[in-house]
Automatic annotation (TrEMBL):
<keyword id="KW-0560">Oxidoreductase</keyword>
<dbReference type="InterPro" id="IPR045312">
    <property type="entry name" value="PCBER-like"/>
</dbReference>
<dbReference type="InterPro" id="IPR036291">
    <property type="entry name" value="NAD(P)-bd_dom_sf"/>
</dbReference>
<keyword id="KW-0521">NADP</keyword>
<feature type="domain" description="NmrA-like">
    <location>
        <begin position="6"/>
        <end position="233"/>
    </location>
</feature>
<protein>
    <submittedName>
        <fullName>NmrA-like family protein</fullName>
    </submittedName>
</protein>
<dbReference type="Pfam" id="PF05368">
    <property type="entry name" value="NmrA"/>
</dbReference>
<dbReference type="InterPro" id="IPR008030">
    <property type="entry name" value="NmrA-like"/>
</dbReference>
<dbReference type="InterPro" id="IPR051609">
    <property type="entry name" value="NmrA/Isoflavone_reductase-like"/>
</dbReference>
Length: 306
C-alpha cells in the first residue's frame, strides 16, 4: 500500500524514550531518522539518519521532516509545548502522522489534575493537532500508564520505590489502582499504532501491561524477594504541595518527580484507563495482560536482589 507508514523520525531521540524506541522501530522494519538538539551527544544504531535542530527552528524542522511519513515525539513531559512548532513543521512537510509525547496518564481531561500544568499542556498540543486535521495531518496520542521498569528500578526516584534499600513510601491508602506498561509494551504500542494507521487515526490510544495498586506491588515484591520492606506513609496532597513549592523555587530535580508522583498515585484516576485499555490492547494485538510476577522477578534479578 502506498499509504503505509514506512519512514519515521523520532523527535527528542536522545532521551530515555528515544533510546528504547529507535531499536524497536528498526526491528519492525521502519526506516528511522533521529532528531536531536545540536548540543546532544547521543549515538544511534547504524542506518539511523541524524538531524540536528533546535525545536523552535521551524525551517530546520521542515527540512528534517520532509519525506517522513510520521513524526514520533519523545520530548520530556515538562517540555511538551515545544512540540507546537514541530506540529506546524509537520504540516508544511506533508507528514502523514504525528504522535505527540504522551506515554503516561490520561491527559484528555486535564481538569482532573488542575493543580499541575503538564496535563493541560499536553492537552493543548493535542488540540493543536486537531486544528491541523483539515490540512492533512493525522495524530495518535498514546497513553501507556506508568513505565513499570523505571517505576521500580530507579532508586530514590519518583513514585517511592527503593528496592536495594528495601524501602517504600506508600501514598494515601495505597489502594488506588493505576495502570503500568513494561518498556516492551510501550514500544510495541507505538509500533503497532503506526501499523494500524486507520484504527488509530485522530484519537487517544490507551494501553497497559497490568493494573496494580501500591499495596499489591509491595506484597508481590516482599513475596518474591523474601525480604520485608520498610514502609513510610505520605499523602499525595502533601507531596503535590511540596512539589509545587520546589518548582516555584526553581528546584526542578525534586519538584518534577514529586508532581509526577502526586498525579500518578492520587485519587483522580490519571493512570486508571479501565475498559479503554482492554479495547486498545485488543485492537493493537498487544498482550491482554502481562505476568506481574515474571516482570517483578526480572527486575529483582537485574538489581541482584534475588
Amino acid at each position: 500500500m502506498t499509504d503505509e507508514i514506512k519512514s519515521v523520525i523520532v523527535m527528542g531521540a536522545g532521551g530515555n524514550v528515544g533510546a528504547i524506541l529507535i531499536p524497536a522501530l528498526l526491528e519492525a522494519g521502519f526506516t528511522v531518522s533521529a532528531l536531536i538538539r545540536p548540543s546532544t551527544n547521543a549515538t544511534f544504531p547504524a542506518g539511523v539518519v541524524i538531524h540536528r535542530a533546535e525545536y523552535s527552528d521551524f525551517a530546520a524542522l521542515v527540512t528534517a521532516f520532509r519525506g517522513q511519513d510520521a513524526v514520533i515525539s519523545a520530548v520530556g513531559t515538562f517540555s511538551v509545548l515545544l512540540q507546537q512548532t514541530a506540529v506546524d513543521a509537520a504540516v508544511a512537510a506533508k507528514v502523514k502522522r504525528f504522535i505527540p509525547s504522551e506515554y503516561g496518564g490520561d491527559t484528555s481531561r486535564p481538569e482532573n489534575v488542575s493543580f499541575e500544568s503538564f496535563p493541560a499542556e499536553k492537552r493543548k498540543v493535542v488540540a493543536h493537532l486537531q486544528s491541523k486535521e483539515a490540512e492533512g495531518l493525522t495524530w495518535s496520542a498514546i497513553c501507556t500508564g506508568a513505565f513499570f521498569n523505571w517505576l521500580l528500578e530507579l532508586e530514590n526516584a519518583a513514585m517511592g520505590w527503593d528496592l536495594k534499600a528495601q524501602k517504600v513510601t506508600i501514598f494515601d491508602s495505597g489502594n488506588q489502582p493505576f495502570d503500568v506498561s513494561t518498556l516492551s509494551q510501550v514500544t510495541r504500542s507505538i509500533v503497532s499504532t503506526l501499523q494500524h494507521k486507520e484504527e488509530t487515526k485522530n484519537t487517544y490510544v490507551y494501553v497497559r501491561s497490568f493494573t496494580v495498586t501500591q499495596n499489591k506491588l509491595l506484597a508481590t515484591l516482599e513475596r518474591l524477594s523474601g525480604k520485608k520492606f520498610e514502609v513510610a506513609r505520605e499523602s499525595t496532597e502533601m507531596i503535590a504541595a511540596r512539589g509545587l513549592e520546589h518548582l516555584k523555587q526553581g528546584d526542578f530535580e525534586n519538584g518534577y518527580p514529586e508532581i509526577v508522583t502526586a498525579v500518578g498515585y492520587g485519587p483522580w484516576g490519571f493512570l486508571d484507563f479501565k475498559e479503554r485499555a482492554e479495547k486498545w490492547n485488543e485492537v493493537l494485538g498487544l498482550p491482554k495482560e502481562e505476568n506481574l510476577d515474571s516482570m517483578i522477578e526480572e527486575v529483582l534479578k537485574r538489581k541482584n536482589i534475588i
